């Protein structure tokens, strides 16, 4: 019985898993689009543990499966009803470092825009940004307010990085409680609309579930101040797609930094637009292909935990980050 790494995300950590297990537990890998369907089915049939960000009913049968390990935090691509009875599900975080840096970069860009200033000066030796010629001042992060929608590992990592810049940290969460770092203000989701109007940056950092899908709707977008920046590193579907596009296209909010989307490619179909709305045509949008946390340090940290859970599974020990069934 094997540990099976399914897909490119899981296989990114194959060398780490193999190194950590030291050959004591067999590790295999498979791509779902492999034309040798019999070989794919045989690998699934032999798997005691599968590492994959998704699990669907159409996957090959895996009767020996005891644990599905997502190599990521999100669980929205897992069809829990399709899992063999008794399968435990674990996830892993560790992406908060890279995402925290990404969010801070987006915030700094909005007030400094170093690349644009550099291009302007290099391309035409244009001095218009210098105070020697009466240039207007730029903004600062100091004194700005960040509102984090959700305050888990990502929201906390952003707060740790933004606060030394003088940023005021506010947060709304499903269950307000003592957290570190302590926000300057914390409330429940029901206070979101009244707090949004004070925020210079609105960070989407909550999980996607039935409660949060399309939660950030036209009313919440409309409550943002005209200069505010929306930053989404959680899931695209938490935000209402068309209302966000309209607000950006019409200049009703200052801009957006978008790393997560409404539509995604697959190995079978890689020519997929991330949205039905042409965000890519808007000058006030920074967009990246869901890569904010994809760092070299992430692979090492995440797959050490995956390997440790494989060791624990085969040794009959308690698992790390078991999310299903809930303990």
TrEMBL record:
Location of the D-isomer specific 2-hydroxyacid dehydrogenase NAD-binding domain: 107-292
Keywords: NAD, Oxidoreductase
InterPro entries the UniProt entry points to: D-isomer_DH_NAD-bd, NAD(P)-bd_dom_sf
TM helices/strands, residue ranges: none
Molecular function via GO: NAD binding; oxidoreductase activity
One Pfam match: 2-Hacid_dh_C
Protein name as it appears in the record: Phosphoglycerate dehydrogenase
